[in-house]
Amino acid sequence: MREIKRLPTVSKGLRARAGELRKQMTDAERKIWSRLRNKQAGAKFFRQRVIGRYICDFVSLDCGLVVEVDGSGHYQDESRRYDSKRDEYLESLGFDVLRFSNRDVLNNIEGVLEVIHERLR
Question: Beta strands of the chain (E only): which ranges?
């Protein structure tokens, strides 16, 4: 189990945005959530959890794991730089970050879950 540093205070606006995102999940997010919720992966996960100034797709606080499901917009140069900076921040707090494409989640959910289970061990 990883030790997570104390999480920063969250702004009300960001918390409200996370709530909106929970209501508007993508097909890939819905698919992976259906397999992570209720400790099905062996750990408790939260969806659209705010950590600092970022909203993370799925987070296990107990295991220190962030799971991101990335659409095509994440593969442009500017988005890659943003995601890299974001991952560095989350890692500085003690989190491991796993990233999967929408395509991987939709077409190979068992493979995605295998990677997550491996990281949780």
Answer: 46-51, 54-60, 65-70, 96-101
